[in-house]
Design brief:
There is one protein chain. By secondary structure, the chain is α+β, with helices and mostly antiparallel strands. It has 3 domains: about 1-30, no CATH class; about 35-120, GMP Synthetase, Chain A, domain 3; about 145-240, no CATH class. The chain is about 15% helix and about 35% strand. It has helices at about 40-60, 170-175, 175-180, 255-260; strands spanning about 1-5, 15, 20-25, 65-75, 80-90, 105-110, 110-115, 145, 150-155, 155-160, 165-170, 185-190, 200, 215-220, 230-235. Strands 10, 11, 12, 13, 14 and 15 form a 6-stranded antiparallel beta sheet that branches. It is elongated. Bound molecules: zinc ion.
Length: about 270
């Protein structure tokens, strides 16, 4: 059998080449989204991670179609997620064993293995992207942002709500320092809004002076032993021409140590 992978549908693919059957796998086959996933506990991740570190390199050597191996909180049963801590092996072309290779293991050190079809790609396209401090007509995760007279911060992620696009950043980046101090140890925007912070324009990059949007929500909560501190703000993108158009992140210089620190096993 010959398995062909494509990121788009191809019409009229021949069914056979000589005596070998041809199977086409496209990205459309993988349009499966699981909405509510069971939570994975820290201890489970630690336990599975050790096993993956021990067996992962060998499995990758022995099986050419593995794309990633991760701890997982669920198993897939007839397309449905069932809570069950396991090790998920993602491969290209599930159900097809490449020539001279064998089955995946059912378990690794008594932890069940769940085989899934899928692959991962980097969120960046380094050759094509602008740097984070350059002007981005369409905003991206990781770009430099700021307000007039404030520090430089980072765009953390987008959210869509009621037809608007918002992004997440730190409260200390977009709220004037004095306002945070005045409401020590809890600052909540809009409740604690004063004249200084009644209307905060946000720019990208930080030195740009054309507003892309306004702060709509912020929490700066700290110095409470026993609860997690929060430093977060939400910015509504009012300039519709700057709404993101693709899922890529901005260019971030990286090296092996940084990737390791981010949890990528190299
Ligand atoms: Zn204020």
């Amino acid at each position: 059998m010959i398995v062909a992978f494509s990121n788009k549908e191809i019409q009229q693919v021949p069914k056979y080449y000589q005596s070998l059957r041809i199977v086409l796998r496209t990205d459309n086959d993988k349009e499966k989204h699981i909405k509510r996933m069971p939570r994975l506990m820290v201890e489970d991740v630690k336990y599975c991670k050790k096993i993956i570190q021990k067996h992962g390199p060998r499995l990758m050597d022995e099986h050419s179609n593995i794309s990633m191996i991760i701890p997982s909180s669920y198993r897939l049963h007839n397309g449905k997620a069932i809570a069950h801590v396991c090790i998920a092996i993602y491969c290209r072309g599930k159900g097809i064993i490449p020539l001279n290779e064998t089955f995946f293991p059912d378990t690794l050190e008594c932890v069940d293995v769940d085989v899934r079809e899928g692959y991962c790609t980097f969120g960046m396209k380094n050759d094509e992207l602008l740097k984070s401090d350059e002007y981005h007509q369409n905003l991206r995760i990781g770009v430099e942002i700021g307000r007039s007279g404030g520090p430089i911060g980072t765009l953390g992620g987008f959210l869509h709500l009621s037809g608007n696009t918002y992004f997440l950043t730190c409260a200390h980046v977009v709220i004037p320092h004095q306002c945070l101090l005045d409401h020590y140890p809890d600052f909540k925007y809009l409740a604690n809004r004063c004249k200084t912070c009644e209307d905060i324009d946000v720019f990208q990059p930080a030195m740009n002076r054309t507003s892309l949007g306004k702060v709509t929500d912020a929490v700066f909560q700290h110095s409470h032993p026993g609860i997690t501190s929060v430093d977060a703000a939400i910015v509504c993108i009012t300039d519709k021409a700057r709404i993101p158009k693709d899922p890529y992140m901005t260019k971030q210089p990286s090296n092996t140590n940084k990737l390791r620190a981010a949890g990528i096993y190299i």
